[in-house]
Amino acid sequence: MQPTPDRKAGATTGARALVDALLREGVDHVFGIPGTQNLAILDALRETPQIRFILTRHEQGAAFMAYGFARAAQRPGVVTATEGPGVTNLATGIGAAYRGMVPVISICGVQESAMRERDATQDMDQVTFMRPITKWAYSIPNVQKVQESVRKAFRVALTEPQGPAHIEAASEILLESCASEATAPAAYRNTQLPSCTSAQLDEVHALLAVAKRPVFVVGRGLISEAAGGAMAALATRTGIPVGALQYSPDAFASTHAFALGPLGRNGSGAANRILPQADLIIAIGAHFDVFSTQYKYGMFSKDAKIVHHSAAPGQIGIVFPVTLGVTGSTRSFIEGLAERVNQSGINKAWVDVAKACAEWETELQGVVRTAMRENIPVVYVVFNDQGLGNERAFQNEHYGGRFFAVDYNNPDFGALARVFGAHGEHVTRPADLEPALRRAFASGKPAIVDVMIDKNTLAPVVFRP
């Protein structure tokens, strides 16, 4: 059941206000799939050329696109889906963002109030479902809370440690009128991390001065603050090898002369052999993860002193007791330590990193991996209407035929099957369907029969406002 927009003179709708709030946050991409309860957001995005909507084929793909975008662009990724299975399909990508400390904002639909708790097809407690895999999950109760909720979602997602947030609203709320609140991000969240204190940096330098076998271990703080270049300069100046945590293998360039590669079970043999020898481990921008450390001594020597830096104070001391914990921005830590090293002239080159890495590469050349593919003769029939027919019907009925983000322009799936060595058929006439199916079953291969159907033949919309 879709209500019609209730826009008063001089006011805006909840959906329009929500999209305007995204613009103020600098959002220029939204990933997702339209559905009944988020169509109002899609309708507002249709009128917003500053934001590119990326239509995906599955919500999980949309969530991972937002995840990858957030990591690559170093700013929040936004994903939208409809209620019920739309939300549950996001879970793996949102869960990955939670574990990876990546700021992804999911903005979803929820069953309208008249249908809730009445055994509606897609009705579920979405907030309870999302709460364990987000920093904050909230169902917007009325249109006056829409903009406040967007502000809080970004504030929570971008507070260290960063991570995903989830907000949701029914179309009835998104289509109601509200007053625009043009509040800039700097007015509702912190935009600048504090610097590490001079006293703490002096302590780090003092520990480094007496260490014989120091190693740097770096994490996602270098990525989020684009501090890789500063870290490279510090490693070059001191001669200290650098290992990366597995959750952030790209935190330090693997081509650098002092790069050991990622730590841990699936990491670099060079890193795994050198780290246990260290008497001082300086972890920078680091969140210790299970793959890098197994949460026990072994990779880190029990006798090693540990300096743990993180922009999130709550991360320090979770896994290992530390000699010194330091909080503040990652860049201020690296640059502050580099300034002290430059003044003292410290150089702690103690291991031949190039030799260690070359030995590991030689070992890798002797490793053979194999793969076997099963040839299962299953026949898939694709009813291909080139997009999202159900949502076309709703946009036609409730949004004046303003079609947006519902057309895929699919390839010939039969031809695609043949590229992969399977049997493929492309059917455009009803009379050709039965022969195509017979050939598919007779092929003895996995097969796809791509059946074209008229995208303009829309299913009737049963519920009306």
Concise synopsis of the structure shown:
By secondary structure, the chain is α/β, with parallel strands linked by helices.
Task: Explain how this protein is built.
With 465 residues, the protein is an alpha/beta fold. The protein has helices spanning 14-24, 39-46, 59-73, 85-88, 91-100, 126-130, 146-158, 171-174, 198-210, 220-224, 228-238, 269-274, 290-293, 330-344, 353-365, 389-398, 413-419, 433-442; strands at residues 12-13, 29-32, 52-55, 77-81, 104-109, 136-139, 165-169, 177-178, 214-218, 242-244, 259-262, 280-284, 305-310, 324-327, 379-384, 423-427, 447-452. The protein contains 18 helices and 17 strands. A six-stranded parallel beta sheet has the order 3-2-4-5-7-6, sandwiched between helices. Helix 9 packs across helix 14. The longest helix is centred in the N-terminal third of the chain and has 15 residues, at 59-73. The relative contact order is 0.10.
